Batch of 3 targets.
Target 1
Amino acid sequence: FAQITAEESEDELPSREERGDARLREQDAAEGNNKGAVTEEAEGNGQRNGEEAEQPDQTPMLSNKPRKKKKKRKTKKPSAGETLEDNDLEDIDSLLEKIEDTNGLSQQTQSGLIVDSRPLLYIEHRNLNPENELKRYFGARAVLGDQRQRQRQCVRGTWLTTPQSTWPRYTRTGIVMQLVDTKGGVQYFTFEHHRKYQEVQLKFLENVETMDPNSVVPLLQALEPYHVDSLLLLSDVCRMQEDQEMARELVEQALYSLECSFHPLFSLTSGTCRLDYRRPENRSFFLALFKHLMLLEKRGCPRTALEFCKLILSLDPENDPLCVLLLIDFLSLRAREYTFLTRMFQEVESHRNLSQLPNFAFSVPLAYFFLSQQEERSELELSQAREKAARLIQLALIMFPSVLMPLLDHCSVQPDARVASHSFFGLNAQISQPPALNQLTSLYVGRTHSLWKDPAVMAWLEPNVHEVLRLVDARDPLVEESEHKRKTLYQNAPRNIYRHIILSEVKEAMAALPLEVTSQPVMGYDPLPPLDSIVSYTRPERTNHPSNESTLSLFCSSLPGRSSSALLQGDIRHERDEEAGAGQDLNQGVNRLMAAMRDMLANIQFQEPPRDDNPEGDGDWD
């Protein structure tokens, strides 16, 4: 046995004692059978018994055992090939999932529905990688099949994105992160632009004034291939042209550039690192994260998008400059993280009044309903979830009656005669609500109506709607109190809500934006900047365009040549002269304009500058 274990230590990785003993017993049994078969064929039954009796004194037989075992291992190794790597990846993922599931169940079954010792906004690095979520859906072999041939020229490890071999070689971009202050265990950081990067940024702002996206491309080709605002702007252009893959890659390059400039003390998972959105240098990181999570959600990775949403909220949880609180409930439901959503509501409701937001008022009871449908929970937990779901959905319907009819309309559900004819849920409920509340309800219905289409959800919603009508007819004091809150609380929406609606691009909410927001120019790289911005270096003032020109005409006039603007102006003149055919001509003009835009985007190419002799060096390009 001493010789056998010595051979194992030379060729195999160390393992636990229990596994080693089991393997030895199996090998001894197999080798004993093989030895008996060989001696029976060679010497007969009598000689076989004699050899078995003399076996303890024969050392050559012991020396042959490890050679047989070693030969077997050599034949197994090349037969595994690349399949071994895939199996290892799948085994690691399955082990991690089992560990996470086991911890979650043990914490939940101790006391009630929601028990978790980790912080609310705790972020796991592995949940920031969409490939891990896709591997759970399709398997590691399908997701990582093309990555074995990838050349890893970007050797620096990152958590937010995975650099690709087709990207330009990364060098110092001129963006650095500095530690500003530390208070009460919270660290405040900020991005800073060096002089070289400031020059590129000022040049970018000048080119943006031309309203021509093609003028931004030379900045990436010649000056700075990792200029963050240029990448974000071109990503929006590609997304409007329905090139989701290119849009996603441009946003990932921007995130990669920013992550490479992180301060050594900046942590994505601690939840104690802050960034001030009032500084323009920090806004790019917020916007890149938001655009990335929106693309992830459309890609079918809601769990990864939820992790990025938590990351944005942890950077400034008090101010929430992008108002991700209006989005985190939807991502939680899409990712089936019902426990997280209910826990967040319980912990944050006391000081943030989340129940006053329509999205939390309706999504939290929906999460409790889904929890009540999970058979693996105890009967006590299921009954508690059903009671909370019924109570909260009734409060939501009383507080926000204008949500029900548009929600049923989006779900293609016809209400019964009692609900349709009752004035509480009628058209008056939508007309009488303040504009700010109309924006919130329109945003929620337009974004999450697909989650309510489940027949089981509608069957649960119907009796609660009738119970609310019974309370209304009985003149319950809660109904009058809720009406008073609607008229007094939702007068003016804060600026971060407008910013969130613009970035989300939900058409129902965009149509409800006030005129003071839609009448001013909105730039995709910095939508609705804060009024109290902290400017670190001077930026050129934007040229004031005449107010009688539309955004489309200004953009057309900035395109090369005169054909696009003349075409649009000609269509407008034609509309004034001939009203009957103006709409058709205008549509043709816009179609030709979009065709020209597609040709322009097709000519955008990212050329990598010549590299230095030293591929590992990080100096500037020549």
Target 2
Amino acid sequence: MAKAFFRLQKFLRRTQFLLFFLTAAYLMAGSLLLLQRTRLVLQQGSRGTPTNQALPVPEEMGRVGIIDPRSLQNPQPGPRLLVGMDALQEPALDQRHSPHWLVSRNSELRQLRRRWFHRISSDQEPLQTAGLKAMKRTAEHKGTYMGCFTHDLRERTLKGAVFYDLRKMTVAHCQEACAERAYSYAGLAYGAECYCGNTLPAAAAKPEECNSECKGEKGSVCGGVNRLSVYSLEQLRAGARPRRNVIYRGCFRAPENLTDTFPASLIQPNLTVEMCSEFCSKKEFPLAVIRGQECYCGYPTRRFSLREGTDGRRCSGTRGASSAAGGQYCLVYQTPVQDTRCTDRKFLTTKSKVFVALSSFPGAGNTWARHLIEHATGYYTGSYYFDGALYNKGFKGEKDHWRSRRTICVKTHESGKTEIEMFDSAILLIRNPYKSLMAEFNRKYAGHLGYATDRNWKSKEWPDFVNSYASWWASHVLEWLKYGKRLLVVHYEDLKQSLIPKLKEMVEFLNVTVTEDRLLCVENNRDGNFKRSGAKQKNFEPFTQEMKDLINRYILTVDEALRGRNFSGLPREYVPR
């Protein structure tokens, strides 16, 4: 009996040892497998992600760009959570804090982090290698590479037009944009900026100094820091389709001395608009002025501001052999050349002591107002949010932290005591709620420059949108009137109708001194790139009578509140329909 018990005890000890051994072997094998997979992922990450194998990102995220995590930190439910992220087409308000929404948003953020990681790792490639690859690809571009040249922002040689695309700029994109506007040369700088002109820069630089990789094309060089990669566009211009025609600005009284007012002129028998426009375009001037057989080129100035037009019939004889009314009037046309006297912008050299907000309800023209302020003052504007689409088009303040105080003012759609009292002062931009609601709905479903479809307008989302956003339009103004420390109220309609006077008020409020010529340049570029494209329905009325009754009550409430604070009431066109 003792023998049998001893044998059983010995067997159990061996089995216990065997189980321990098998468990240890299993854990070691799993650890080795995990290490192997980790090493494989790191090797793939260090190689970068090819452009044709980009990590999957939702289509909505592509339109918005990178989301600032601070926009997800506001715990208050309501429409303000949509600000800066509406293009994501989020679910209904009561579903925003559901676990499913949080999980999906965390997944999107992880994908963005992966994109950042791959972009950073790919940027570590030596610039000299990128330059060699770019030289090999030069033959693929239709333009002729002229070399690397110095780039002075104050005294630019390529001053015909300026374009930005801080994420997708390519050599071909820049060449096509300049060729469509009939320019002879295209130059790229900083990997994302495109300059057009008709004169080749004089100061050449070393080839290796053009070493910035194009943001939208790996292996291609788009200039460098204060350096331009310049291409000749003679071959492209022949087959390029003109982007736009000459724009008629109107009939104006001619200045007393045309030669002193305009820096370039031409006298040509049988002069036509096309001949004068082409002459001024080659000279890189935005205005072509015709009086009889005389063609003049220049800019809007104090002597010739284009503010007071006259009856077009007074210019009926200006293109004939004898000028009408003794040459007192002239025809003015806008050439395809961009007025670049006010396109240079920068961050504040020292932190601003006054923290200024540019506050508005979404769809009230905040982006357009930022365009005007930036070009008038020469300083970037910031944003409480991060809109990648705006950053890519040149609003560099989008990427700067909104509390850095390096921008002249900060865009915000926020309202509420805490958010408002963070600012020392604010420009409160107000727009007709009917127009604002339609503009924001268009932006939500078609981006900054598109129109929502009939299907969107006829869906149940439009009535829900009006019910929630109409009250927000009113509460936004009321709360800024209540908690704002120092306010300048600007009505969108007044700014549009009287641009220079209203813009002067805004600039003075920001404590910036600007020249008259710079303001005239802003007026000449007043629209920027912010007009919606596509088919717009005429006499389109998406508001039901029930919607109108709701909105009209809010209009009367806001009008009364403005007058109670000694501001002018709402414009007459806001009057209930």
Target 3
Amino acid sequence: MAVHLSFLLILTGLTGIHSITTVSKVSVRVGGSITVPCLYDSKHINNVKYLCKGPRWNVCSYEVKTNKPSSSGKFLISDDKKQRVFTVTINDLTDKDTEYYWCAVEIKDGADLKEYFHLSVTAGAPSLYVAQQEITGFKGDSINIKCHCQNSGERKWCRLGGSCVTRSGSIDGTRVDVSARNTGVFTVTLSGLRTESSGWYRCVKGNLQMPVHITVTEKPTTIAATSQITTLAPTSKPVNHTSSTAEQRLSTVEVEQQSVSVNLMVFIIPLSSLIFIVTVASFICLMFKRHKQTTGDSPATIMGEEEVTYSTVKQRRKTSGQLHRAEEEVTYSDVKQRKPTDKINEGPDVKEYFHLSVTAGAPSLYVAQQEITGFKGDSINIKCHYQNSGERKWCRLGGSCVTRSGSIDGARVEISALSPGVFTVTMSGLRTESSGWYWCVKGDLQMPVHITVTEKPTTTTSLRTTLKPNPESLYPTQVSEEQPVSTVDGEQQRVSGNLKIFIIRLSLLIIFAMVNLFIWFMYKRQEQTIVESSATTT
């Protein structure tokens, strides 16, 4: 009996009935997207792969093929021949997308290979989901994957086409620990990552699975981390040059604030010390002039003339949603001024390319502004306008991504698409660590956005919003939601206003003192005239 059973299993493997491996049932929220991997046999690397939709194989309809992409962008398919996995992505999910789907491989002489999975689209939170399907880790390090669940059943962590772990164990040499400390979520920890650990896995809870793709890369060395030219696909977080400049400018403002406090001492000086008052006024006027020079817009005074590189020229340029050739032109002289420290002393330079597309009309993906400022603890909204198709995401440069809701470095991220052609990213509970570069992602396009998080001002903000409109006012009368006023600039304007008020008061004091001196002088002269007249009479 055992011999017959072994023979049937061998025959089943030879016929290739189960040569496609995928998930069996997934659950996704309305409006979201899902990527499902389909593992196939190595002998079908060059075959056409496709996705078919329908409750039964003989009545299903073709949705997308590797040799015939979908024009609507609703369905996307890609084939990784090295990993022997083709993935299908379904975007903008609705209730009508709840159905059986078939991963299939086209066979010229014979029946096509197929394996189905069931997709359930829910109005509320899915029964099993993860914050993001794409996770990146470094070789030798550890990563955590949180699987949120609302259903019952055994929890597992499985490799696609490989083994599973229910509590602790190893998969392909990587240590796996599954823990459930909180209700409704279990955490999978992969430690001692290896290059072979890259690939597709799945969270399993009961009869539901959620695919997760893990990419393991080499850990960057010290030289690469300090000298790498960061673009849209880095492996380390960029250095925030803006924060250091802002700290220098803020320290200048604090020095100016200390000089303004002198006006509290001026009014207790006796009128006989006018020379000292004039000296103090001259000193503060000199400081005011220096303050204006320090906080000007010249790159030479802020960055230093030798530091005007390609990145600073590009960063100081304002983006208006449509790229103009005249504004975006960067000459060779801009690039060649890069300091020698930008090169790696030993070995080839670290590099990464990006493609810039200049369009006559509206770009396929753009934002109203690339520089956004928010206050610590508050929320900001970023509207990403698009005309192309594909999955929408919000990613941190060198960090993680969010497709619908989740968190990045402690800040809550929500992505909503209430209007066609635009999706809104809301970051709430901002922290100081939230400052840095992010990007809107739609399909294969990205748009970088820089976010600066500062401390919330106390008095300055209320004054800006209550004053009546006045073109000559020292403070702006409106603060746009997507264009918040920088804290440093606000402090500088407040200092300038205090200096002007102080100079006006000082001028009035000097005039008052001069009038008193003139009256005293006239009184003394009149008194002397009376004495002389009395002496003559006597």
